[in-house]
Structure formats: C-alpha cells, structure tokens
Amino acid sequence: MIFDFSCDIGHIRNDIPHQLWEATTADGNANTLVTRFFHNTPSFYANNFLKCYLSYLSPDFLSQTFTIFGLVLFGLGLWYLLIRRKWFILALLFLAPIFPLFDFPSNGLAQTIILYGTEGLVMLYGVKNLWKFFFS
C-alpha cells in the first residue's frame, strides 16, 4: 500500500466529496437509504484519518526516514519498550503521528521535531539496552 506522506487534515477534507460521489455512483440504482448507510461522511473521515495516521508508522515511511542500522535500532528499541512495559514512551510514539495530521501553519517545525524526536527516542532506548547487553 502506498501512502501519501503529505497527509494532513486539508487533504482529507478536500478528498471526501470526491470519495462520496465515487462510492454512491458505483452503487448504481441501489436503495438510497442503504447507500447512505454504507457511504456516509463520518466513515470516510475516519477511514482517511486512519490511513494518514498509519502512513507515519508504515514501513515505507520508516525506511525513507532511517537507514538500515537505524531501522534495526528502532526495532530493538521498540522490542525493549514492549518487554519492559515503558508505556509512557510507547504512548508518545503512537501519539506523535497525530500532530502532523493537523495543519498548523506556524508549527511545521514543531510537528517534525515531535514526530522524529519520538522515533529517535525509541532508537536511543535501543542503543542504551544494546550497550547494557554488551558492556554490563
């Protein structure tokens, strides 16, 4: 699956009318009530928001962001966070992709720092535990 990495709330809002029109015309002459039940605006918003949110955690995005060594450290850090139950850092990691979705014009740099900072924090946790494993 290919995701759009410029995903934000503006793209979601602009794409919803087209998706609704496409879905309702694909049904042909089906019952209007059934069509509106399955093709409603909140479900399209939720679907697009979820796609954009997951695009920041997808392997495609992470492989473009990190090198191979960085991906190994990210995976190792994620593994140690799950094993040691560090819920606060995991919550930061899974909440970080929400900020780039909302298009705040003055906070573009802050969104980038939050997103990459939390991913870097997970990598540093992996480095710390790797260091402990070999040198302690």
Describe the structure.
With 136 residues, this protein is an all-alpha fold. It has two domains: 1-55, no CATH class; 57-136, no CATH class. The protein has eight helices and no strands. The chain has helices at residues 9-26, 32-38, 41-55, 59-65, 68-83, 87-95, 98-101, 108-135. Helix 5 packs across helix 8 (108-135) and helix 6 (87-95) packs antiparallel against helix 8. It is elongated and about 70 Å long. It starts with 8 loop residues before the first helix and ends with a helix. The model has no long low-confidence stretch (mean pLDDT 77).
Low-confidence stretches: none
Portion of residues within helices: over 70%
Question: Tally of extended strands?
Answer: 0
Q: Tally the helices: what do you get?
A: 8
Query: Over the alpha carbons, how many angstroms does the gyration radius reach?
Result: 19 Å
Mean pLDDT across every amino acid position: 77
Number of domains: 2
- Main sheet, how many strands, which sense, barrel? none
Separation of termini? 42 Å
Beta content comes to under 5%
Shape: elongated
Reading the helices and strands in chain order gives HHHHHHHH
Class of secondary structure makeup: mainly alpha
